[in-house]
Design brief:
There is one protein chain. This protein has twelve helices and no strands. It has 323 residues and is mainly alpha-helical. It has one domain. The relative contact order is 0.15.
Length: 323
């Protein structure tokens, strides 16, 4: 029994819904984002590798890791960079074990605290990308990222706390990510809390994952790539995989917690799976529409906008806690 549990936990962390699943879903998410943005901007998007170019992101990463040369510069801490990006990927993979789609589930009262801790590691890893180099463009990008995330991360945390409080108010496991997603329920008050926290979480996700209008830390025309300016070869490939795995992770969490996952069906049902996929794709479509429709804002404008995002999440938290 102990060995079977170890094998199941290992499978869940490394294969599904952990590392391999997040990497594959992240690269498929990249393909969909590039394809739809191309269509919205009257371009073709990926088209050469695979049907409709669906394998293009995989080919790009393979080329970076196995073909392209890694360029090193004086003072850059490549080993530290790879270590933290690996830890970030591992943290996201571990956080997936708190969700109902995992064969091996970690659950209990107040497990949202451990979940948030794991989620924060991706932010730390991205900050290290900028701080591992002495390039002025990279340092400027890292500074902008830290300024932006100082407001976006609290909005993410408060939003998910508000949602879990509302969804587990009658549960024997309060503030549980698993219970919030697996036993999704709806009422007027819960709907109000979820609507406010969804808006906040969605906008904070865009800011955290550097999607327009919050792509200030990259800013190709100003910072020559910013955070990623010094990366090449395998390190750039790992950064791309990590970045889109995080987007996929946050989109999955948004779908499960704020949109009800397969609701009104259950996890494991064929109809439930179809509903889940449709909600996930619609959420990505909304993110891509925002990306393709707006231009980059300045740092002070981004901070001002994210302040209102925090206010929305705090309002949701007060509603969930008081009423």
């Amino acid at each position: 029994m102990v060995y079977s549990e170890i094998l199941l936990a290992t499978f869940s962390a490394l294969i599904y819904p952990g590392l391999l699943f997040l990497v594959v879903l992240g690269l498929l998410t990249q393909w969909y984002m590039r394809k739809l943005v191309g269509r919205l901007q009257n371009r073709i998007g990926p088209k050469y590798v695979g049907p409709l170019g669906i394998a293009q992101p995989f080919a790009d990463v393979i080329k970076l890791v196995f073909v392209k040369e890694k360029l090193s510069s004086k003072g850059r801490l490549d080993r530290l960079l790879i270590l933290f990006m690996t830890l970030g990927l591992g943290a996201l993979s571990s956080a997936m074990l708190f969700t109902p789609i995992s064969p091996y589930v970690i659950r209990g009262g107040y497990d949202v605290i451990a979940f948030i801790y794991l989620m924060i590691w991706s932010t730390i890893a991205f900050a290290v990308i900028g701080l591992s180099s002495s390039n002025p463009f990279t340092i400027a990008g890292s500074s902008r990222f830290l300024t932006q995330i100082l407001f976006a991360e609290p909005a993410l945390i408060i939003s998910i706390l508000a949602a879990t409080i509302a969804l587990t108010k009658n549960s024997t496991t309060p503030l549980s990510i698993y219970s919030s997603a697996a036993y999704f329920q709806i009422s007027a008050l819960i709907a109000a809390v979820l609507a406010l926290s969804f808006i906040s979480f969605f906008l904070a996700t865009i800011a955290k994952t550097l999607i327009k209008p919050f792509d200030i830390p990259e800013a190709e025309t100003e910072l020559a790539g910013g955070l990623l300016a010094e990366l090449s070869g395998p390190t750039l490939g790992l950064a791309i995989v990590f970045h889109y795995s995080e987007i996929a992770f946050l989109a999955l969490i948004t779908t499960m917690i704020f949109l009800g996952g397969p609701y009104p069906f259950n996890y494991g049902d064929a109809l439930g799976m179809a509903v889940f996929i449709v909600k996930y794709v619609l959420l990505l479509t909304l993110m891509i529409t925002v990306k393709a429709s707006v231009g980059r804002v300045r740092v002070e404008q981004a901070v001002s906008m994210i302040k209102y995002v925090i206010l929305t999440s705090v309002t949701a938290l007060i509603l969930a806690t008081v009423f």
